[in-house]
Amino acid sequence: MLDVIGLSTSFQNGNQRIRAVDTISFSIGPNEVVGLVGESGSGKSVTALSCMNLVPSTALVSGEVNWRGKNVLTMSDRDHRQFLGKEIGMIFQNPLASLNPVFSIGSQMMETIMLHQSVDKRTARDIAIQLLTQVKIPDASTRLNDYPHQFSLGMCQRIMIAITLAMKPRLIIADEPTASLDVTIQAQVLALLDALRREQELSILMISHDLGVIAQFCDRILIMYLGKIVETGTPTQIFKMPKHPYTQALISAIPVPDPDLRQKPKLISGDIPSPANLPAGCRFHPRCPIATDRCRDLEPELIDGVACWNSGI
Ligand SMILES: Nc1ncnc2c1ncn2[C@@H]1O[C@H](COP(=O)(O)OP(=O)(O)OP(=O)(O)O)[C@@H](O)[C@H]1O
Ligand SMILES: [Mg+2]
């Protein structure tokens, strides 16, 4: 459904060129949930915005983002509006930023429903109640009249999911949808998204800096480091046999509750370098415990799911 081929996005900042996303390729099939994981600043949000052709106009984007055969980056304004309005839904980290504080939840939902499903007000209200029930907001028919501040943060995120569903999208891009929620609510929101994608024909690109969160929920994981995808595989492949030293470090950093199983995390030394000043060769080499001369000189390609010269060792 979504085929990203050689996508690069950079920003010109004075005489600095910030390569936020650097020739990445991946695809998302029907009903598939793909997780995009990486540290802060690795380019996850820029990837999401680039896939929707919503990057700021200062950005330089190249490559292809094919959505059901049409390139999102070059499609007409009309097709683009249709794509954004009908095919794709976005869920962001902070639900309060997406909800309007001065309108009731019901009126915001009904507006979206009437815009997307050409139904009258009464039917829109029924659909809104149905959607709120679906995302497990109790007493949906009365709560419809409440305003965003009268709901908890977790509820607001579920309401955002309901509003996104009202658009009937085929693909949802969720950028850190649970980052502002505590762990139990986080689990509920993820379980909800998981249930929804099983019930409806829905694909999801799920973005997180937390590999542990992503793993329970995705069919496939993309590990991103400084604008590149350095490893990709199923959660089982990634957890049982992580090939890239960066992935290994991410996994060892996931907290294990059992004190007997606890191991010392493999700390990644140093900070993530600036995408304005990328290291030569493999961009992970300055922080890599097994880097060799070849890693310092030549950039490895993503082959058999990993971009590392030493992954076979
Ligand atoms: N509009 C912009 N102008 C210039 N640089 C930008 C812009 N947007 C993002 N960047 C840079 O691109 C890089 C990738 O940013 P991005 O927001 O995609 O990271 P991220 O992986 O989503 O991080 P986080 O986990 O913190 O959300 C960063 O170095 C960021 O500073
Ligand atoms: Mg981000």
Describe this protein's structure:
This protein has 313 residues and is α/β, with parallel strands linked by helices. It has one domain: P-loop containing nucleotide triphosphate hydrolases (Rossmann fold), CATH 3.40.50. 35% of the residues lie in helices and 22% in strands. Strand 1 and strand 2 (16-28) form a beta hairpin. The longest helix is centred in the middle third of the chain and has 17 residues, at 183-199. The protein starts with a strand and ends in a 16-residue tail after the last helix. The model has no long low-confidence stretch (mean pLDDT 90). Adenosine-5'-triphosphate is lined by residues 11, 13, 18, 20, 38, 40-46, 56, 209, 275.
Annotation keywords:
313 residues, alpha/beta, Rossmann fold, 6-stranded mixed beta sheet, 4-stranded antiparallel beta sheet, 10 strands, 22% strand, binds adenosine-5'-triphosphate, binds magnesium ion
Ligands bound to this protein structure: adenosine-5'-triphosphate, magnesium ion
Largest sheet entry: 6 strands, mixed
Whole-number average pLDDT?
90
What's the end-to-end separation, in Å? 35 Å
Content of β-strand = 15-25%
The second-level CATH architecture is 3-Layer(aba) Sandwich
Helical fraction equals 25-40%
User: SS-based structural class?
Assistant: alpha/beta
Radius of gyration: 21 Å
